[in-house]
Amino acid sequence: MRKWGSLFLAATLTVATMSACGSGATNTATTNTGGDGAPAANTGSRLDTIISRGTLICGVEGTIPGFSFVDSSGNYSGLDVDICKAVAAAVLGDPTKVEYRNLDSSARFPALQNGEVDMLSRNSTWTVSRDAAGGNALEFAPTVFYDGQGVMVRRDSGIESFADLQGKSVCVETGTTTELNLASRAREAGITVNEVKFQDSNANFAAYQEGRCEAVTTDRSQLAAKRTAFPTPDDHVLLPDVLSKEPLAPVTINNDSRWFDTVKWVVYGLIQAEEFGITQANVQQRVNDPNPDVQNFLGAQGELGKQLGLSNDFMVKAIQAVGNYGEVFERNVGAESTLKIDRGQNRLWTDGGLMYSPPFR
């Protein structure tokens, strides 16, 4: 028994040595660091790639005022854009270190899966088939805008409800939950609609304005946003019907928990900042807040950031860049914007809404 035990031990040590040092073996240690200079373990995470590259590549829609819109000078703005900036600030310490990629509805998920973008912040609805590992292999971060699908028609069309769309033509963007919901609600209502499908949002709304469709359907927030760019916005109205639930959330690739956790907790951090009353203007002063929960949240004590592979003050940087969630909402789509969208379900849970962050502990 002793002889065979010795042989087994020798063989085990030989295999271990070959595995560590043999031909073709690679050392998985890395010198990549988080924002505080702490070593970040190399697990093939997208987070390491972004830190090494020094730029976040963020997929957006690019043509929706209030959410993601690029002006004639190439400047991006909107709620979705601010999420990209917050993540870049938290990871790289600079909200300008973002490369934006405009993606239509059919290109967005393949671009993420193929590694062309690091994340999507592009009015994408969180569904089980998109989230399931056997489907598109995507990971959805916390919802940043709770929405519902709507329908817009011309004020003088005589159409007053979804049921009045019987036999009417409806513009819809293909490859979206919008397309599926329209078909489902039509069957449920026992009506037939003539779907006129388009690859991207611009073509969809251009066709509606040209009169090629009697109605257009998408998220209600997007309808309101697109209407602001019409020559005569008041000539178009949203029907009262809400056709679906549309929780819109940023997206990362599946099976990369370090990167997903980073995006997830930055989003939650913006929500928690509003709950704490921490704003873009007062965040530096609040670092010295006597509340230990605030100190933990802002990195004045504890190592929450380091646990994510970031600097401990990652949320200070994110809030300095874009403000808290309430500030992001109101500036882009709420009371301070041209859209004037009521916060509704997007209020904090303490104010009757759905915005809720797990504890930063």
Q: State the name of the first-level CATH class of the largest domain.
A: Alpha Beta
What is the CATH superfamily label of the largest domain?
A: Periplasmic binding protein-like II
Q: What is the alpha-carbon Rg in Å?
A: 24 Å
Which strand order do you get reading across the main beta sheet? 11-10-12-9-13
- Approximate helicity band: 25-40%
How does CATH name the architecture of the largest domain? Answer: 3-Layer(aba) Sandwich
Low-confidence stretches: 1-42
Share of β-strand residues: 15-25%
CATH fold node name of the largest domain: D-Maltodextrin-Binding Protein, domain 2
Specify the structural class. alpha/beta
* Total strands: 15
Question: Mean of residue pLDDT?
Answer: 89
Secondary-structure element pattern, one letter each: HHEEEEHEHEHEEEEHEHEHEEEHHHHHH
Number of helices: 14
Major sheet attributes: 5 strands, mixed
Please, how many domains? 2
Topology:
Layout: H1 2-21, H2 46-53, E1 56-60, E2 63-64, E3 68-70, E4 76-77, H3 79-92, E5 98-102, H4 108-113, E6 119-120, H5 128-131, E7 138-140, E8 145-147, E9 149-154, E10 169-173, H6 177-189, E11 194-198, H7 201-209, E12 215-219, H8 220-227, E13 236-238, E14 246-248, E15 251-253, H9 257-276, H10 283-286, H11 292-298, H12 304-308, H13 314-322, H14 325-332
Parallel strand pairs: 1-5, 1-6, 10-11, 10-12
Antiparallel strand pairs: 2-3, 3-4, 7-15, 8-14, 9-12, 9-13
